[in-house]
């Protein structure tokens, strides 16, 4: 008899629900919030209100698509953090209430760990084996940039992380400086495919060890564009694709340089990426190039499991269920990572 776990993700502006049968995904439903586009970024209060509107229909759709009844669920897994507290509270409160009503346990999931655990999802499209332990994972999103060593499903150690801004935030900030609409990261990726990545050069940080820093790069982009616009007000418009390609090339180069260093220092050749920025085509291509150049065994999540989704919450919940690692009804969500 399979173990059915419901996963709920509400850490930012996507309301998502997923059902797994053991480690196999039966459904993964996500409702995005378009309201934030007009503000150029996620507005926390609007996000939490939208979650309240979306969470019941999204969970209903996930359970219906999975072709099961609610009373077949063994547990409810939910994102406890990190994320926007208002958004997390919606998912947390609903998960606990549903679990009480069904007389089943809850399972608390860390959002960043779940991104890594997405590599263990099985579905109808699964063709590649899962990573072998130990492996390295570059976890990159709008709020986090980390290199993590994974020795077991729940034995994860951060080897390096950003000391200021995240790579995803840098993509979005650069796009905003250029006047591109939100979310800017995917648009930079799209425009960069038509540009020359060597056309413009931006400063790269000199940070010791395996840590990252992107605040200086953001400042470099800002000052570079400010000076060029003084000379030519149409500079951005006339060089948009080359600018996007050069910015993307710089960010990906920084990420890959540290990832290679981590692989060299640890001797680990099982290498993965995760998080929203893992959907970036240039980063994916660079990792595949590393597979050939450095003899890595590379793992790249499918696009639907790269950005925020409940499938990664549900699969993490399943492995925690096997260990009897259940949630505390009195626990509260957290905004900053405790991973």
**CATH secondary-structure class of the largest domain:** Alpha Beta
Shape: globular
Strand content: 15-25%
> What is the averaged pLDDT score?
95
**From the coordinates shown, what is the CATH architecture of the largest domain?**
2-Layer Sandwich
Class computed from helices, strands and strand pairing: alpha/beta
- N-C termini distance: 33 Å
Q: Mind explaining what this structure looks like?
A:
The chain is α/β, with parallel strands linked by helices and 339 residues long. It folds into two domains: 139 residues, ATPase, nucleotide binding domain (Nucleotidyltransferase, domain 5); 167 residues, ATPase, nucleotide binding domain (Nucleotidyltransferase, domain 5, 2-Layer Sandwich). A five-stranded mixed sheet has the order 3-2-1-4-5, sandwiched between helices. The chain has a five-stranded mixed sheet with strand order 8-7-6-9-10, sandwiched between helices. The longest helix is centred in the last third of the chain and has 27 residues. The radius of gyration is 20 Å and the shape is globular. The mean pLDDT is 95.
């Amino acid at each position: 008899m399979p173990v059915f776990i419901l996963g709920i993700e509400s850490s930012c502006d996507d309301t998502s629900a997923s059902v797994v049968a053991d480690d196999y995904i039966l459904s993964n439903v996500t409702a995005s919030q378009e309201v934030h586009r007009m503000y150029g970024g996620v507005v926390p209060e609007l996000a939490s209100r939208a979650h309240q509107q979306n969470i019941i229909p999204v969970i209903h759709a996930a359970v219906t698509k999975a072709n099961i009844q609610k009373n077949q669920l063994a547990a409810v897994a939910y994102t406890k953090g990190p994320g926007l507290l208002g958004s997390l509270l919606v998912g947390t409160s609903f998960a606990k209430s549903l679990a009480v009503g069904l007389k089943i346990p809850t399972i608390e999931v860390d959002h960043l760990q779940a991104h890594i655990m997405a590599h263990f999802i099985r579905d109808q499209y699964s063709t590649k084996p899962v990573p072998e332990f130990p492996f390295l994972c570059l976890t990159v999103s709008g709020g986090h940039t980390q290199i993590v060593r994974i020795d077991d499903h729940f034995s994860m150690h951060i080897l390096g992380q950003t000391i200021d801004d995240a790579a995803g935030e840098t993509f979005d900030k650069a796009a905003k400086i250029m006047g591109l609409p939100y979310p800017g990261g995917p648009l930079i990726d799209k425009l960069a495919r038509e540009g020359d990545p060597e056309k413009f050069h931006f400063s790269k940080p000199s940070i010791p060890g395996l840590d990252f820093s992107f605040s200086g790069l953001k400042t470099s982009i800002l000052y570079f564009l400010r000076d060029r616009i003084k000379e030519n007000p149409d500079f951005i418009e006339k060089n948009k694709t080359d600018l996007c390609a050069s910015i993307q090339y710089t960010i990906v180069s920084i990420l890959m340089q540290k990832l290679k260093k981590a692989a060299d220092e640890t001797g680990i050749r099982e290498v993965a990426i995760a998080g929203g920025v893992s959907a970036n085509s240039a980063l994916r291509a660079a990792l595949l190039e590393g597979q050939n150049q450095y003899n890595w065994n590379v793992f790249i999540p499918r696009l639907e499991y790269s950005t925020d989704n409940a499938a990664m919450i549900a699969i993490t919940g399943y492995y925690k269920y096997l260990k009897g690692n259940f949630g505390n009804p009195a626990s509260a969500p957290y905004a900053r990572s405790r991973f």
